[in-house]
Design brief:
The protein has about 325 residues and is an alpha/beta fold. The protein folds into three domains: about 180 residues, Alpha-Beta Horseshoe (pyruvate-formate lyase- activating enzyme); about 80 residues, no CATH class; about 60 residues. The protein is about 40% helix and about 20% strand. A hairpin with a 7-residue loop joins β6 and β7. The termini are far apart.
């Protein structure tokens, strides 16, 4: 029989609240949790979950290692968490952690890990895994990340490649994509995004040079990639240059496979560039140019024309998302 240690909420609360007393600490996240221990000890686990939500920075992820939804795989590998225990743990974390925090992210959400190649695996295993994920989504439970790994070598069995690829493709298309859109909805604002790279996702030594960090490049043509600081941050792309080693708030404008696109909020109508205007939902190249032209004409009469004046002169209606992006700093 499996044994489930009883967690003690008190030392965990003392540790986390103690860490939060240090003003030097900004972002605090955790990583893995044991869903079977949570499910079998719901009362102390509830107190610990509340403490995590109170003390961790928003965007925290508590990853759960189910590994497989197949009972045969569990028996063959002595896995200590079954699907029902997982659901109990997921419900608990969702109940207290899905509220959004000051950076715009849910405070605490679960992650879920699957492993392919374990002993006892069969074609039906992947159907069970996918059906479990569908059950979770039908119940409205949120997952921040679904990690699908492979193990190979002595002590493991050969992975049925076709079934594995089909499972992974289904998860990415039918589970991950809707989750991404729900967790990062269009028009939602994320705060404190740190900008890391230009024109590619790889961080290079040149990105620390003045050529990439100077405020003079702000709004020029190009791509900028960044993330919020955290354990499992989402990659954010913006279709113009932002000085690296800086941070800003963004409004979500689109979704990739496992990333999002955005545009900065709080930009000034009197300094915004054509490329920045093009990135705003509802404006294209033609509208952006019309706004730049209208602003130049208005400046002959006044130094800092209002948003309303510029849009009116360009004969463009101001939509709510445009006001979010072009608000006062």
């Amino acid at each position: 029989d499996l044994e489930y240690p009883i967690p003690n909420p008190e030392p965990i609360a003392q540790l986390l609240h103690g860490l939060r007393e240090d003003d030097r600490l900004d972002i605090l996240h955790t990583d893995n949790g044991n869903p079977s221990i949570i499910a079998e000890n719901i009362e102390p686990s509830t107190e610990i979950t509340k403490t995590l939500v109170e003390t961790l920075s928003d965007g925290a992820v508590l990853s759960f290692g189910l590994e497989s939804a197949d009972p045969n795989v569990h028996a063959a590998n002595w896995l200590n968490c079954d699907s029902q225990q997982l659901k109990t743990a997921l419900r608990l974390v969702n109940k207290y952690g899905r509220e959004r925090g000051e950076r715009g992210l849910p405070k605490l959400l679960p992650g879920l890990n699957f492993i392919a190649g374990l002993n006892g695996e069969r074609a039906e295993t992947y159907t069970m895994n996918l059906n479990l994920l569908k059950d979770l989504r039908n119940e409205g439970l949120l997952l921040r990340r679904i990690n699908i790994r492979q193990v190979e070598g002595e002590g493991f069995q050969e992975i049925p490649e076709k079934d594995f690829k089909h499972f992974k493709k289904n998860v990415r298309e039918t589970i991950d994509t809707p989750l991404l859109q729900e967790l990062f909805p269009l028009g939602h604002v994320l705060n404190d995004v740190h900008w890391e790279t230009h024109d590619g996702r790889t961080r290079l030594p040149v990105h620390l040079s003045n050529e990439h960090t100077s405020e003079t490049i702000h709004g020029r043509a190009g791509l900028t990639f960044g993330r919020q600081i955290g354990a499992y941050p989402i990659l954010i792309g913006v279709p113009y240059h932002i000085p690296l080693e800086s941070s800003s708030n963004i409004m979500i404008t689109g979704h990739g496979a496992r990333s999002i696109t955005g545009v900065e909020v709080g930009m000034d109508i009197n300094t915004v560039t054509e490329k920045q205007l093009e990135a705003i939902p509802g404006l294209g190249k033609k509208s952006a140019w019309n706004l730049i032209s209208a602003r130049a004409k208005l400046r002959r009469k006044e130094t800092n024309p209002s948003i309303e004046a510029v849009f009116e002169a360009a004969q463009i209606n101001i939509e709510s998302q445009m006001k979010t992006v072009l608000g006062s700093k």
